[in-house]
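Session log. Operator J.P. requested a structure for one protein chain; no other inputs attached. Running the standard single-chain path with C-alpha cell output.
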Amino acid sequence: MASRGPPRPTPGGRFAQFKLVLLGESAVGKSSLVLRFVKDQFDDYRESTIGAAFLTQTIALDDTTTVKFEIWDTAGQERYKSLAPMYYRNANCAVVVYDITQAASLDKAKSWVKELQRQANENIIIALAGNKVDIVTDNPDKRAIQTADAEAYAKEAGLLFFETSAKTATNVKELFTAIAKKLPLDQAGPRNLRANTRPGVDLRPEATGQQEKSAARKYRWKLLLLLLPGFFLSSLDVTIVATALPFIASHFDKLNQLNWIVTAFTLTSTTFIPVLGQLSDSFGRHSALQLSMWSLTIGSVLCATAPVWPVLLLGRALQGVGSAGIQNVAMLVLADSVSLKEQAKNTSIFQMLNGIGYSVGPVIGGYIVDSSWRYAFVLCAGLGAVSSVSIFFLRNDLRPGSVSLSHPKQGETYLQALGYGLATLDFGGIFLFLFGVGLVILGTAWGGSTFPWTSAAVIVSLTLGAILLIAFGVYEWLLEPDRVLARAFPRTTPLIPFHVLKHKDVGLISMIAAATGASLYSVFYFIGIFFTVSEAYPASKAGVQLLFYVPGLGVGAYTAMFLCNVAPRQTFWAISTGTVIETAGIAALTYAVHTRDSALVNGMMALGGAGTGLRLMPCGLHLSGMFRERLAPAYSLLRFSMPFGGTLALTIMGSVFQNKMSAYFGSSAVTGAAPNGTTLNYHNQAALDAISQLPPTERDRIRRQAATGTMWAFISILPFLSLALVASMFLGNVWIFKKQKAPAPSTDEGTEAKTDMEEQVSPTLAAGAEVLESVYLVSLFTATVGTKKRPVVGAHERAAPRTMDVEEASGGQLVEQKDERNSCGL
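Structure written below.
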C-alpha cells in the first residue's frame, strides 16, 4: 500500500514526540476518530477495539515544528477497564470521547476525566470530544447532550472541548492540532520509539496478550459470579419447590389441585420469556434483570406468607415471571459484545453451575420440608434480595436499551422516555403469544387430570391456543418492513421477527431444546417419584440421588467447550452428539427403572446429564452465530422451548403414571388398603409412609407397579426425544475460529515498531466465525460446504470488513490481520 506521506520535519527544525491515549465508552467512535486523523478515512462498519490498537501520526505546527503522536486507541468495553492504566501511564495527552446522542456516554467520559486527573501525569493535557455531530445535523431531535452543557463542564474541569464528526471530518484535525499546540515541546519523548525507555506499555504482543487474557478472565468471572445468584435462584426455585409440593397442597387441603402449584409457575415462566427479552432490548439488560429479580422476590414473599390458596398461586405466577426474565436475559448478557469463542466459555461454565442448582434443589428441599415448607420460599426471597444487589454492581457492564430511563434525552421527562420505550413494544404480538401459549399449557395441564382429554374445556383451550399462535405468526409477518402493520406502527419492534420465526434452524433448535426440557424435567420429577414410591426412600435421600446428574452435566459441558473451542470448533457435532447421548440415556434409564436397579438408574442419570450438558451451550451458540443482529428474539425462542417442552412432558408423563397407578393412587384410590383407611396418593407423604405398613405381598405389588408406571412414563416421551434426534440431523453449522497471533515488532535500527496489540474483534463478526444455513450433512456429503458457508453477519446484515489495526509509522500504512480459517470444512 502506498503511503500518503505524512509531514516530515524540516532540516534543522524541531521534532517532538508525545504519547496520546483515547478513552471513552464503547461505540462512541474513538477508533473512527483515529482512522480519520491518521488515514483520512471513515468506515461505517468499524469494528470494536479489543485491548488497544497502536498507531502514530505526525502533524506540522509550522514550517519548523513537527509533532508526532504515539496514539493508543483503547477498548471501551468494561472488561478492559483494568488495562487502561497500562495505556495512559506517562501519557502526555488524552482525548476523552463521548457520543452526543447517548447521555450516559458523557457520564462515562466524566469518570475517565476524574481518573486521569487523579492517576495520570500531573500536567497531562485532556481534550473532551463530543463525537457524531453529523447525526444531529440532520436530526436535531437525536441530540441527547447539549453543547452548552458539555462545554460548561469542560471549562470547569480545565479541558479542551470540541464537537467532532469522524464521518464528515468535522473538527478532527482541529482537535489534534489544538492538543499539539498546548503540549510543551520540552517534555517531548525521544524520536525513536525503540529508544524510549520511559515505563509504559510493554510493546511485546505476547506480553500484552497475556495481560488482556488475564483481564478477560477476570471480567468473565466477575460477570459469572454476579449473575449466578439470580440464575441459580431461578433454577433452584424449580426443583426445591418440587420436593415440597405434597406438603404445600396438604396444608391448604388442595391435594386434588396440586398440579396448579407447578402450572401457575409454568404458565408465566414460559409465556413471559420473549416479553422480557424485548423489554431488555428496549430498556436495557439491567432494568429487565432487576424487574425480573424483584418479581421473583415478591412472589417468594407472597408464597412464604400465603394465608389462602389463591395468594399462593399468585405468588407462584410472579415467581414464574421473574424466572422467565432471569433465565433469558442472563444468557443474553453472556452473549452481548463477545466473540463466539468467549461466549462458549462463559455459557458452558454458567450452565454447569446452573445444573448444580437443579441438582441440589431437591436435596435442600428435602431437608427444608422437615421443618416447614414455607422456609423453601423464605430461602428464595433471601437469595432474591442478594441477587438484586449483585446485579446492581453489573449495571455499567450491561448493554443499554434503546431508551434510558435513568438518562433521558435533554428536555425529555422520565414519563416521556417511558412512553417512547413502551411505544417500541409489540403489544399485539405479546397479547397473542401470551394467550396462545397460555391456553395450550392450560389445556395440557387440564387434560387427563382435571378434565378428560375429550372434554370441551380441554379441546377448546388447545384449539383456541393453536389459533392464537397462528395469528401471532401472521401478526409478526405483517410487522415486517413495508407491510401494513409496520407502516401503521413505525416505532414498534416485533416481539419475534418473522424472518427469525420461519428460519429452519430456529425451528429445529427449538425442537431440540424442548426435548432437552423434557429430559431434564422428567429426571428431576419422576426419578424422585421412583425413589420415593418404588424404593421407599425418604424425601431427603431421594433428593440426594439426583446429585448423580451433576457429574454427567459437567462432563457434557466441558466436552461441549472442547468441541466448540478446540476441535472441530463447530456447533453441529456438539448438538448432534448430545442429542444421541441424551436419547440413549433416557432410553437406558427407562430400562433401569423397570429393573429397579438403583446403581444403574444413577449411572443412566449421569449419561443423560452428559447429553444435556453437551447441548445447553452449543444450542445458544448456534443461534448466536445465525442471528447476531437479533439475539434477543432468537434466544427468547430457545429459552421458551425448554420449559415448554418440559411442561408438556410432565403433563404426558403424569397422565400415564396416574393411569398405571389408578388402582392404588389418585383421587379415586381405594381406602382401607392401609391401616386406618388411609387413602393412597403419591403426592401425600403420609400415604406413602403407609405403604410400608401393608402386608408384604400387597406392598411389593404396589412398589413393582410404581416402577412399571415410571417406566411407561419415560416411554411416553421417547418418541418426542426421537423427533429431536432426527431434527439434529437437518441442522446447519456454525464455525468458530481461533485468532492468529500478532507478529513480533520490528527491532531494526531506524525503523518504527510495528505491533498488533490484539486482533480487533467485532461484536457482530464474533472473532472469526462462519455459518452454513442449509443442511450441513448434505453439504458435507456433496462436498459443497466451502461454497455454502458465509461469514457471520451483524446488525447491518453484512460481513464485517477485515480489521486494520496496526500502523506502519514510516508512512501511515495499516497492516491487515486475518482470522485463521478452517479450510477443510468439517
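Operator note: The chain has 29 helices and eleven strands.
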